[in-house]
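Researcher: Please predict.
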Amino acid sequence: MKKVILMACAVAMLATVQAKPADHAKLSINKNNIKVWTIQNSQNPVFLYKAETTYDTALEKAVSLILDVDHAVQWVPYMGSIKVLSRDDKKGEFLLYMVLDFPFPLKDRDLVVQGKMIKDAQGIITIKNKAVDKGYAKNPDYVRLTHYEGDWTFQKLAHNKIKVSTYGYANPEGSIPLTFVNMFVQQQPYQMLQKMKMELGKPSGIPALPEALR
């Protein structure tokens, strides 16, 4: 079973660091049942983000989609490639290597992601991710991202009704205009949650979740 964690950012290049009370959160997008907040952290000019929506589907189906690494490149925006370096379904731990396909003339990015899958007593599932500067040799064709943290949260609201949240932050490294980066931070999670809805709408069975999430 080639299922492990697909980070949300990975999902592009973002995911989450919790905002401090003093940070300013702005509702940047609110349409198609998707909300995206951008958070200005005084310690970093690059926005953090939080995005959330609800889906009419089973919790297990949504989580399984995120964990389906082989399928990720078909729907996750800017995902060039992704491979599982290691995983332990019993402990809920994993290590991924991914390449992010940035638009020309920007250089593509890559990163190694260490993650953890957790299910709490209320049945809420969280997937936490962070970049690590080890585990895979650097490739001169890519810019290596080392400052990234993020997570996904899945909460059952009713039968076939769930709330999905994703949070994130990443330093894209290199010479990229700040205005471009912050526009990307707003649009990428919105596009991702839209594509996720389309994938969840396709007929399919509900795979068993890893042991750590049962």
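Model: The chain has one domain: 24-213.
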